[in-house]
Design brief:
mainly beta, 0% helix, 71 residues, 48% strand
């Protein structure tokens, strides 16, 4: 949580894959705290949306890491 937030906020992280949208994380947090969550998903891309008190503050996508070929 950015230090300039200045108050407690409800942080919610929603993730969307080929199976739909689900809430990965929802908790009251204070400035300076970090979230470290891992998620498995289905499909070629994961949409991640971060909300503070219900307001969208960040949206990003993730793609699976490429598998290394063994020789």
């Amino acid at each position: 949580i950015p230090d300039d937030v200045g108050r407690d906020v409800v942080v919610r992280i929603d993730v969307t894959d080929d199976q739909g949208t689900k809430t990965l994380f929802e908790q009251v947090m204070i400035a300076g705290q970090e979230v470290d969550e891992r998620v498995r998903w289905v499909g070629d891309e994961l949409l991640i949306r971060v909300f503070f008190d219900g307001e969208l503050v960040e949206q990003m996508t993730a793609k699976p890491e490429e598998e290394k070929e063994e020789e």
